[in-house]
Each structure stands twice: as structure tokens, then as C-alpha cells.
Amino acid sequence: MIFSPFLSSKKPILERAENDLTTKLRLKYAPFYHAVDSVKGAQIEVDGRQMVMMSSNEYLGLSQHPKVVEAAQKAAAQWGTSSCGSRLANGSRGYHEELEEAMAAFLGKEACHVLVAGYLACQGSLAALAQRGDALIVDKSIHSSLWDGAQLSKADIERFSHGDISSLKALLTNLDPQQPKLIAVDGVYSMEGHLAPLPELTELAEKHEAFLLVDDAHGFGVFGRDGRGVCDHFGSTEKVDLIVGSFSKSLASTGGFMAGSRGVIEYLRSNCKQIIFSAGLTPPAAAAALAALRVMQAEPEHRERLLANTAYFRSLLDQIGLDYWDSPTPAIPIVIGNKEKCYFVWKSLWDQGFFTVMSISPGVPAGKDLIRSAVSALHTRDDLDRFAQALCVACKKGGVPIRNSR
After folding, report:
1. DSSP for 247-258?
2. HEC string for 134-176
3. What is the pLDDT of residues 119-162, one digit of tens each?
4. Which residues contact 119 (CB under 8 A, 6 or more apart)?
5. Strand order from edge to edge, sheet including 111-115
6. 3-class secondary structure, 41
7. Bridge partners of 214?
8. What is this structure's pTM?
9. Which residues neighbour 190 within 8 Å (Cβ) at sequence distance 6 or greater?
């Protein structure tokens, strides 16, 4: 056998991967990558067990709405399953333009571009808009997609404390007034459940002539008039230069969008690699998103039920005495504050039939290890009552102090 130096150079990489896999396999009850076998509303089946989904981003509960399902089926029958090409080349279709026009009108922007993933919408917009020598100013808790885009841009990245306007103000004051500036934030921070302080952000952006980008993936469909999002909620739409987001939450589909002035959108279409080198959004996904957008406007009861469920669940957590990081959103973190206790709480909830997601540092700040729960319009009061009871049991088992048992 001939010795190859490449075998030794790849060995560390293989060992890292294999050791990590071994670690996962040693976990008898791994908290991630559980496949759901069937879905009916908020009721799911996993490995033959009936469970309640308590961590889905399906805020409005539209993924199985008859009009949404029918639209996806009809689109597949008419257009096939994929455009099989980049929008720049051979992949643009009429259904893309129909969805873009509807999204732009709904969001109050001149133009919109839809693409195959919300992650790529966030990553690609920052990577294309910011350049070497620019100041790219981001909240420390921005989504990974924005952070990746910031690093790809080669701009000078400056981070301010999460949601801290005074920190941002100090940072902007110390920058060269002539340096091009772009501020990027989440509209809703999905782990913390916090809203971006957009009135203050837009004021500072205007004062320092900074471009302002908001990722409203988790605010779209929840806040604002008819679900127009956090920018509309604060009356800041005109002052936000670019709104990006995802169809995989309230619109119960897949894909992403960028909405802004016509000039900015056309620039992105010509300069964003994530647009240029990705296939266009599939016909069923685009049709489902458009149908969900129309249902959202025609049937406000879904959003009304979501908001009522969110308020009710927060009241239950207040009674129990659990920390939910003051989240005013359906993305409700249950802060445990310790990795080991967080796992035991997650495991107990799983055993009691509730599907949740565990988020620990460094994914969240140290001491803020949490169970990520999310309320949906699909939940019943009984679902939420039983989940609150399960939380009491889980916290007792995990040694997490609570005020009251239910």
C-alpha cells in the first residue's frame, strides 16, 4: 500500500466528525432530529407515540388549511415540481412574479424578490449590500443567517448589546461620519422572543444616514395590521430600507423574501449570489405562500386565536412563576438557566407527551439555557393547560424552582 499524505491530513477532520457522532449516539434520549411521522393540527405522532407539538413556528396553523393545500396541488399539476433553474437564467416563472407583487403590496414596499430559503434571503442581502470598508452594525443576538451574511460581506462588523439603544448610539457616534453604514436587526428574536425597538432604531439610522435592514421572519403574520409584521406594528415601514423574511412560519410554506425600493431589489437581483446561483422557488411552495397570504387577510380569526393563546399561555407561566424572558410574542422561551437542568426538564416534557426544543449556550447566552416553546393558533386551551401542568412536573423533577403548582 502506497502511503498518501492526504490520509493523515484528513484524519483530524474524520475524527472530529466520528467523535461527535459517537457522542450523539451515546445519548439515549437525544433532544434533536426527532422525525415526526404524522401531523393533525397540533397533534403529532413520533415513534408511535401521540404528542402535542409545542415548538413549531407554524404560528397561524395554515399548513393544512384546505385552500393552502389545494393551491400547492394545483401549482404542481400546472407547473410541475420545480423550475429547475436560477431566476437569472431560465428559472423565472409567472407564479414568482404574482407572489412578489402580492408581497410588495402587502408589506407597503415598491418591490419584492422571493427565493428558495429565508436563510438565503437574510444571508444574501447583507453579503451583497455591505462591502469592504463599510460599517455593518448588528445586534449581538441576530439570527445566524444574518451573521453569516455579515461575515461574507467583508465589511467592518460592529456589534451592539442586544436591544440596547444606548450601546448602539455610542457605537454610531464613534464611527467616521463619512463611512457607509448598514444596521441589521431581527424584528423578533426567535430565541429570546423580544421585539426590536424599531422607533428608536429608525431614529438613529436616520440621524446617522445608515441603511436599516430588518429580518422579520418571526414577526410577519403575527404583528402589525393583518399580520404585516413588526415594521408595520411600530409604524416604521417607510423608514426601514429592506425587510427580509421567511415563508416557513406564518405562511406555512418554504422560501424567503426581500422587500424594499425597486432600486435596491434590482441591485440584489444582479449582485446577490444567493439569488443568482440558486434555483427559483418551487411552484407548490410559491402557491402555498400566496394562498396563505390571502387566507391570512380574509380569515383574521387565525391571528386572533394565536394572539389570545399567546396571552393565555403567558398568564399560565406567570401563575407558575417561570421566567419567559418577558417575551410578548408567540415564541416563548422558558428560561431554566442551567444546561443539565434544561435537559432534565426537556426529557420530562418529552416523556409526558410534549414536543419542545432545548436551546443551551453558546446558542443562547450563558445562564439563559432554555426550553424553546411556541404557541400556535392550532392549540386549544386544554393543550396549553396540560402543557403548563407538565411544566410543573418537569421543573420539580429537574430541580427548577417554581412559585405555584397547577
Report:
1. SSSTT-S--EEE
2. CEEEEECCCCHHHHHHHHHHCCEEEEECCCCHHHHHHHHHHCC
3. 999 999 999 999 999 999 999 999 999 999 999 999 999 999 99
4. 144, 145, 246, 256
5. 111-115, 256-260, 242-246, 211-215, 181-186, 135-139, 156-160
6. coil
7. 185, 243
8. 0.93
9. 57, 143, 217, 218, 331, 372
39: enclosing H helix or E strand: strand 38-40
* Axis crossing angle, helix 118-129 with helix 144-153, rounded to the nearest 10: 30
Report yes or no: 180 and 161 within 8 Å, Cβ to Cβ.
no
Whether a cis peptide bond, with omega within 30° of 0, leads into 362 is yes
Measured distance CA(290)–CA(117) in Å, rounded: 15
* Other Cβ atoms closer than 10 A to 260: 25
For 337-357, write each residue's pLDDT tens digit: 999 999 999 999 999 999 999
pLDDT, tens only, 180-219 = 999 999 999 999 999 999 999 999 999 999 999 999 999 9
Percent of the chain with pLDDT over 70: 95
Q: What is the pLDDT of residue 92?
A: 97
Given this model, what pLDDT does residue 24 score? 52
In order of their start, the domains of the chain are: 38-59+300-398 (3.90.1150.10), 80-298 (3.40.640.10)
| Spatial separation of the C-alpha atoms in residues 233 and 372, rounded to whole Å | 24
How confident is the prediction for the chain on average, in pLDDT?
A: 94
- Residue 129 CB neighbour total at 10 angstroms: 26
Helices 301-320/283-298 angle, 10° precision: 80
The three three-digit cell numbers of residue 158, written as one number: 460592529
Q: How far apart are CA 152 and CA 134, in angstroms?
A: 13
CB 383 within 8 A of CB 353: no
Can you give the pLDDT at residue 207?
Answer: 97
Q: Which residue has the cell 444616514?
A: 209
Dist. CA 80–CA 89, nearest whole Å: 18
